[in-house]
Write a structure and sequence with these properties.
The complex is a heterodimer. Chain A is an all-beta fold. Chain A is 0% helix and 51% strand. In chain A, strands 2, 4, 5, 6, 9, 10 and 11 form a seven-stranded mixed sheet that branches. In chain A, strands 1-3-8-7 form a four-stranded antiparallel sheet, with no helix packed on it. The radius of gyration of chain A is 13 Å and the shape is globular. The chains are: A mainly beta, B mainly beta.
């Protein structure tokens, strides 16, 4: 295993609420990406952060936002939750100096929106 | 827009049989193709990338630009190959922003 952790493991929220998911990477992992994986689907790219700046975004509305911190941790924030936001959320980090397609995935956070 | 299609949701074979997991893509530029694997109770991980032209765990995949395909093949399946397999595409150069297919579940029976 690569030391990429995510918290919490599971989370239940109601429609309209806000949620924060967390990811912790190893030292030197300056790039972190977040993905949404709906049931029966492949991961869908949300956005990517490098050295605390967003440097790539998928087709997700602005209510999906993120932060990356100097201690190699990051957050995914989702406002105004909708039922369709129910999914597994994955983070993946990349050590500096490795090929851009290098990604170490976390175990995911299962979000259920009721 | 880029799109990845994995037509089979489930592929069931017996040990020792050949395996081919299909992947077709749609992309107007120069693509980079990947296969990811997720074993039971493990994390998603990269299996192979087309630019490496390597064989990993007996699996190979050839990019066919004419047919826009990147099928994953193994001549003799093993029980430990049972897993979820995802094909992914990214534009070559720049940031890695992959588009994944929906995945194919491979079950290898003893």
């Amino acid at each position: 295993e690569t030391g990429v952790t995510q918290s919490p493991t599971h989370l239940i929220k109601t429609r309209g609420q806000q949620v924060t998911l967390r990811c912790s990477s190893q030292s030197g992992h300056n790039t972190v990406s977040w993905y949404q994986q709906a049931l029966g689907q492949g991961p869908q790219f949300i956005f990517q952060y490098y050295r605390e700046e967003e440097n790539g975004r998928g087709n997700f509305p602005p209510r999906f936002s993120g932060l990356q911190f100097p201690n190699y941790s990051s957050e995914l924030n989702v406002n105004a939750l909708e039922l369709d936001d129910s999914a597994l959320y994955l983070c993946a980090s990349r050590p500096t100096g490795t090929p851009t397609d290098t990604q170490y995935f976390g175990p995911g956070t299962r979000l259920t929106v009721l | 827009a880029q799109r990845v299609t994995q037509p089979e949701k489930l592929l069931s074979v017996f040990k020792g049989a050949p395996v081919e997991l299909k992947c077709n893509y749609s992309y107007s530029g120069s693509p980079e193709l990947f296969w990811y694997v997720q074993y039971s109770r493990q994390r998603l991980q990269l299996l192979l990338r087309h630019i490496s032209r390597e064989s990993i765990k007996g699996f190979t995949a050839d990019l066919n630009k004419g047919e826009t395909s990147f099928h994953l093949k193994k001549p003799f399946a093993q029980e430990e190959d049972s897993a979820m397999y995802y094909c992914a595409l990214s534009a070559s150069g720049g940031s890695y922003i992959p588009t994944f297919g929906r995945g194919t579940s491979l079950i290898v029976h003893p």
